Amino acid sequence: MNAAPLPPIPPITTAADAGLVACPHCRLVCRDIATDTPTLRGRLRCPRCAGRLHPRKVDSLSRTWALLIAAVILYIPANLFPVMETVTLFGTQDDTILSGIAYFWTSGSPELAILIFSVSILVPLLKLATLSALALSIHRRAAGGTHQRARLFRIVEFVGRWSMLDVFVVALMVGLVHFQGLAVIQAGPGAAAFGAVVVLTMLAAHSFDPRMIWDRARRPAPGKHPSGKHPPGKHHG
Amino acid sequence: MTELLVACPECDALHERRELAPGAKARCVRCRAVLYRRSRLELDNQLALVTAAILTYLIANSFPIVDLQIQGRSNSATLVGSVLSLWRDGRELVAVLVFATTLLFPLIDLGAMLSLLLITRRGRPTRAFAPLLRFLLTLRPWGMIEVFMLGIVVSLVKLSNMAQVLPGVALWAFGILTVLMAVILSMDLHALWHVAPRTVASLKAPGRPVHR
Description:
The complex is a heterodimer of chains A (237) and B (212).
Chain A: E1 20-22, E2 29-31, H1 60-80, E3 84-88, E4 91-95, H2 97-106, H3 110-139, H4 146-159, H5 165-176, E5 178-179, E6 183-187, H6 189-207, H7 211-218
Antiparallel strand pairs in A: 1-2, 3-4, 3-6, 5-6
Helix pairs in contact in A: 1-3, 1-6, 2-3, 3-4, 3-6
Chain B: E1 5-7, E2 14-16, E3 25-27, E4 34-37, H1 43-62, E5 66-70, E6 73-77, H2 79-88, H3 92-122, H4 129-139, H5 145-160, E7 164-167, H6 169-185, H7 191-195
Transmembrane segments (chain A): 65-84, 112-138, 159-179, 191-208
Keywords (chain A): Cell inner membrane, Cell membrane, Membrane, Transmembrane, Transmembrane helix
Subcellular location (chain A): Cell inner membrane
């Protein structure tokens, strides 16, 4: 923890400021000769890992939006359709994500109900909302709250995978409860939709380039007219 | 050389690379993102850990996770069995998703990790090193053993209300695997770029490092 890098020398120099580019794959810092020769953009390769060099993720905002919209659309069937179908002697019972949570709540496991509610309902919703808000803030060239936005992004990226919990629970129930004529559990159509929502939101978070939060806060995009107000240039660690 | 510099992966701020003490992390002075870490484990410890994880993985997937008994009938399930059931029921998409995140990707991850560590240990440059490490870096977020472990716990609680549940060997194996994976994932893959034997990547297009 104490072996920190250089003490901050405000204002901070970014790789882009210095005409450098960090390889998106292996993070090697290379000179970005495409800043002088734009035709080379997207064709340079990292000398260490041979991956393509891009100073920022390619089409980050459009990709993030596309994946978010797809996730929002699938979010509806994911919650309306049953994720699990239980066939017993007494008939068939369909469980959506919400009714599964209600079952835990009423059957004496409120902790699990809260856990599953958090990862299956809260996390996907907050993730969609947060990523949309972050993408909007980039469009608006927001200058404030950079630290908060950076932290939000980090949280979203970290918690996203845990939403897969319900899919795994359904998979295990299907594998286990297979007593022909007595009780059989099958996955419902909602399970695939829900799994797709989790994957799409994870991909959306991967497509979002958090460096944009800091880029736009410091200066307008190249080629665009400055918006008039310059954000304070002081950044302390 | 360029390896003296490191750009923050989350805000692009440039930092000078410093040698870290074992177990230490370097954070970005601006956004506090982790820039790089140094593992407490030496190369041989890491190799041992990955080997142990591969063996645990094999055990976890060869034995039933849990045995369920309803009215004198019993049924046990492995992870592979669950995936197959999903597939047979016509939920191919879910089957593929579960198969990839809990079986395929963790196995590839461990296999790639083992190869990379062995290449590093042998100390001779190999062409496969860079592509393999790049591939592993892309794949890593999609292995979800730890989430699956939590899924096992939730399923057990759910089932214990309606039937008798007997934990199987694989349940414990998954528990151990989760812990091993947590340690393995905490090792900074990017550190391998620095200790690995130098490989000259084939340069198809111009692109050169900064020379200082």
